[in-house]
Amino acid sequence: MFKQMQMSYTMRSSSSQSTHNRYSAKNMAKPVNFFCLAPEARAVSVVGDFNDWHPNVHPMRRQADGSWYLQIPLTHGHHHYAFLVDGAPVLDPRAMGMARNERNERVSVIAVS
Questions:
Q1: Dihedral (Cα; 43, 44, 48, 53), 10-degree rounding
Q2: CB atoms closer than 10 angstroms to residue 58
Q3: For residues 46 and 35, what is the distance between their CA atoms, to the nearest angstrom?
Q4: How far apart are CA 101 and CA 104, in angstroms?
Q5: Which domains are present in the chain?
Q6: Which of 26, 86, 89, 109 is placed for a possible disulfide with 82 were both Cys, Cβ 3.0 to 4.6 Å?
Q7: What is the pLDDT of residues 52-105, one digit of tens each?
Q8: How far apart are the first and last CA of the chain?
Protein backbone atom coordinates (compact mmCIF):
# COMPACT_ATOMS: atom_id res chain seq x y z
CA MET A 1 0.00 0.00 0.00
CA PHE A 2 2.81 2.43 0.85
CA LYS A 3 4.44 1.78 -2.54
CA GLN A 4 1.18 2.54 -4.31
CA MET A 5 0.72 5.82 -2.41
CA GLN A 6 4.33 6.82 -3.07
CA MET A 7 3.98 6.09 -6.79
CA SER A 8 0.76 8.08 -7.01
CA TYR A 9 2.41 11.04 -5.24
CA THR A 10 5.43 10.86 -7.57
CA MET A 11 3.19 10.78 -10.61
CA ARG A 12 1.19 13.77 -9.37
CA SER A 13 4.22 15.84 -8.50
CA SER A 14 5.86 15.24 -11.87
CA SER A 15 2.66 16.09 -13.73
CA SER A 16 2.18 19.25 -11.68
CA GLN A 17 5.78 20.21 -12.43
CA SER A 18 5.22 19.82 -16.17
CA THR A 19 1.98 21.80 -15.82
CA HIS A 20 3.89 24.53 -13.98
CA ASN A 21 6.51 24.72 -16.75
CA ARG A 22 3.90 24.69 -19.48
CA TYR A 23 2.00 27.63 -17.96
CA SER A 24 5.03 29.59 -16.80
CA ALA A 25 4.92 33.28 -17.74
CA LYS A 26 8.33 32.88 -19.35
CA ASN A 27 6.87 30.43 -21.89
CA MET A 28 3.73 32.37 -22.74
CA ALA A 29 3.57 34.93 -25.53
CA LYS A 30 1.94 38.31 -24.97
CA PRO A 31 0.57 40.40 -27.88
CA VAL A 32 2.72 43.51 -28.41
CA ASN A 33 1.58 46.39 -30.64
CA PHE A 34 4.14 48.06 -32.90
CA PHE A 35 3.44 51.45 -34.51
CA CYS A 36 5.63 53.30 -37.00
CA LEU A 37 4.85 56.75 -38.38
CA ALA A 38 6.08 56.71 -41.98
CA PRO A 39 3.34 58.17 -44.23
CA GLU A 40 5.59 58.35 -47.30
CA ALA A 41 6.86 54.76 -47.03
CA ARG A 42 5.95 52.06 -49.52
CA ALA A 43 6.76 49.16 -47.15
CA VAL A 44 7.51 48.84 -43.43
CA SER A 45 8.35 45.74 -41.43
CA VAL A 46 9.52 44.86 -37.93
CA VAL A 47 12.81 42.99 -37.62
CA GLY A 48 14.33 41.75 -34.39
CA ASP A 49 15.84 38.97 -32.38
CA PHE A 50 12.38 37.34 -32.24
CA ASN A 51 12.39 36.74 -36.04
CA ASP A 52 16.16 36.43 -36.64
CA TRP A 53 16.14 39.88 -38.26
CA HIS A 54 14.35 38.59 -41.39
CA PRO A 55 12.60 41.49 -43.18
CA ASN A 56 9.79 39.40 -44.71
CA VAL A 57 8.51 37.72 -41.53
CA HIS A 58 6.61 40.66 -39.98
CA PRO A 59 5.40 43.15 -42.62
CA MET A 60 3.35 45.98 -41.12
CA ARG A 61 -0.03 47.21 -42.39
CA ARG A 62 -0.61 50.80 -43.46
CA GLN A 63 -3.34 52.61 -41.50
CA ALA A 64 -5.60 55.36 -42.85
CA ASP A 65 -3.56 58.07 -41.09
CA GLY A 66 -0.30 56.99 -42.77
CA SER A 67 1.05 55.12 -39.76
CA TRP A 68 1.96 51.44 -39.89
CA TYR A 69 0.76 48.81 -37.41
CA LEU A 70 1.42 45.20 -36.48
CA GLN A 71 0.75 43.06 -33.42
CA ILE A 72 3.36 40.38 -32.65
CA PRO A 73 3.16 37.81 -29.83
CA LEU A 74 6.42 37.99 -27.84
CA THR A 75 7.65 35.93 -24.91
CA HIS A 76 8.81 37.25 -21.55
CA GLY A 77 12.09 39.18 -21.57
CA HIS A 78 13.92 41.96 -23.39
CA HIS A 79 13.81 42.01 -27.18
CA HIS A 80 15.92 44.01 -29.65
CA TYR A 81 14.21 45.27 -32.80
CA ALA A 82 14.05 47.97 -35.47
CA PHE A 83 11.68 49.06 -38.22
CA LEU A 84 12.69 48.60 -41.84
CA VAL A 85 11.21 51.54 -43.74
CA ASP A 86 11.63 50.93 -47.47
CA GLY A 87 14.61 48.72 -46.58
CA ALA A 88 16.36 51.21 -44.27
CA PRO A 89 16.59 50.47 -40.52
CA VAL A 90 14.84 53.03 -38.30
CA LEU A 91 14.81 53.17 -34.50
CA ASP A 92 11.48 53.30 -32.68
CA PRO A 93 11.16 56.72 -30.96
CA ARG A 94 8.63 55.16 -28.53
CA ALA A 95 10.93 52.27 -27.53
CA MET A 96 11.60 51.51 -23.88
CA GLY A 97 15.30 51.91 -24.54
CA MET A 98 18.19 51.56 -26.97
CA ALA A 99 20.96 48.96 -27.12
CA ARG A 100 23.73 47.78 -29.42
CA ASN A 101 23.44 44.55 -31.38
CA GLU A 102 26.29 42.11 -32.13
CA ARG A 103 27.43 44.36 -35.02
CA ASN A 104 27.52 47.38 -32.69
CA GLU A 105 24.50 48.96 -34.42
CA ARG A 106 21.91 50.81 -32.37
CA VAL A 107 18.59 48.98 -31.99
CA SER A 108 15.38 49.58 -30.06
CA VAL A 109 14.54 47.57 -26.93
CA ILE A 110 11.20 46.39 -25.59
CA ALA A 111 10.61 44.57 -22.29
CA VAL A 112 7.77 42.06 -22.14
CA SER A 113 6.53 40.83 -18.77
A1: 10
A2: 19
A3: 10
A4: 5
A5: 25-112 (2.60.40.10)
A6: 89
A7: 999 999 999 999 999 999 999 999 999 999 999 999 999 999 999 999 988 899
A8: 45
